[in-house]
């Protein structure tokens, strides 16, 4: 009986180790900037990898999967301006992460990060000043 329990415990331990490192991570996101149309992305990256996605607005999204030297314990999502300045960094502290859903809303330079992403990312409000 003790041998069965030991084998079962070893079996479960090896299962939990393999389950903690997914083969890839699915990044599903939207970037809404000012009055521009929203940009949606759906990208699958292998474990321990990173990628930079250049958006038509000039922004860049850096996506990093767990195990990468830039983010060893979880996924990282960074939004960079067209000048390369970090506008926001999000960390998802889960080494077993298989997918992440996120959205960025950038209105007049102000960044709002949402995770999980809503079904529809709200458009930026346009403030109209009236002169009298």
Describe this entry's structure for a reader.
- It is globular and about 45 Å long.
- By secondary structure, the chain is mostly beta strands.
- It contains one helix and eight strands.
- The N terminus is likely disordered.
- It has a four-stranded mixed sheet with strand order 2-1-7-8, with no helix packed on it. A four-stranded antiparallel sheet has the order 3-4-5-6, with no helix packed on it.
- It starts with a helix and ends in an 18-residue tail after the last strand.
- Helix content is 14%, strand content 42%.
Overall pLDDT score: 82
Distance between the termini: 88 Å
Beta-strand residue percentage: 35-45%
Largest β-sheet summary? 4 strands, mixed
Shape: globular
> Based on DSSP secondary structure assignment, what is the total number of beta strands?
8
> What's the tally of helices?
1
* Low-pLDDT stretches: 1-19
Structural class: mainly beta
What secondary-structure arrangement, pairings included, does this model have?
Elements: H1 2-19, E1 24-33, E2 39-46, E3 50-54, E4 60-64, E5 75-80, E6 86-92, E7 99-107, E8 110-114
Parallel strand pairs: 1-7
Antiparallel strand pairs: 1-2, 3-4, 4-5, 5-6, 7-8
Task: Quickly describe the structure.
With 132 residues, the protein is mainly beta. The protein is 14% helix and 42% strand.
Supply database-style keywords.
single chain; 132 residues; mainly beta; 4-stranded mixed beta sheet; 4-stranded antiparallel beta sheet; 1 helix; 8 strands; 14% helix; 42% strand; globular; disordered N terminus
């Amino acid at each position: 009986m003790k041998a069965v329990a030991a084998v079962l415990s070893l079996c479960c331990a090896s299962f939990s180790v393999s389950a903690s490192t997914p083969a890839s991570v699915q990044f599903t996101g939207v970037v809404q900037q000012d009055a521009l149309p929203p940009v949606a992305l759906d990208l699958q990256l292998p474990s321990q990898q990173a990628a930079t996605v250049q958006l038509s607005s000039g922004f860049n999204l850096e996506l990093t999967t767990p195990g990468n030297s830039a983010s060893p314990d979880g996924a990282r999502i960074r939004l960079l301006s067209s000048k390369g300045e970090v506008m926001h960094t999000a960390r998802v502290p889960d080494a077993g992460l298989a997918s992440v859903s996120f959205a960025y809303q950038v209105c007049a330079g102000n960044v709002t990060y949402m995770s999980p992403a809503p079904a529809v990312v709200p458009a930026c409000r346009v403030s109209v000043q009236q002169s009298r």
